[in-house]
Predict the structure.
Amino acid sequence: MNRSESITVRMPGWISWLLRIGAGTIGVLLGFLVKPLVGWVVAIVGDAPGPLRLAASLPTGWAVPVLALVGLLAGIWLAHTARHEALLLTVSATAVHLRQKGMERRIPREAVSVAFLDGKELVLLASDTTQLARYGASDLPARQIRDAFDNFQYAWFDHGDPHEHEFQSWVDGHPMLDETRNRLLRSRSRALSENRWGTAADLADDLQEIGLVVRDRGTDQEYRTIARSGKPRSEGASDSGSAATTNT
């Protein structure tokens, strides 16, 4: 057993380097190909975007380094954005820390009944099956996530959501749900379709307060009933993880 005080799992560094180098390489290739590319675009549609016309007006000896630099800068920006949006997970004997998209959260060890990966999402549940967190974790190595929890002897479930069989797809107006729940799910569906992730996360919290756990499967919402009413014990931003689940 690793006796370190905590274990942090983050997006592998090679992804950032791949974005930087890949974008720079594309810039170099574009520098060589921009003149024939612009000629082809003009022949097809009669015009080309201004930046492409400007790049095509440069001698190849200038176009290659200029576009390589532009590509490299774009790659640096993409790498920074990817790190900002990726989950940063820190597990210790006393708590789980999660940071994503500038939001940070701490969940005490005693609140966590089980942890697992539901597809590409990391999920933590309380003993009453309340969802403490659901965060997109597609950029993190799954084995490292599991090992971090195992290292501190958190309960880990290997086969997806242990309550998978309880989820059902939401259909607006379904008689199994009262109008309050249908209204919240309807509002959340609208928020998701309009890319209002924060609103969708808040509505997921509201649904959980009245006994429903909700998750997203493509464009559909699925829900299950919480075994017993109860509020998750956590510290930090109020968020059932939906801000990180609509990703990715």
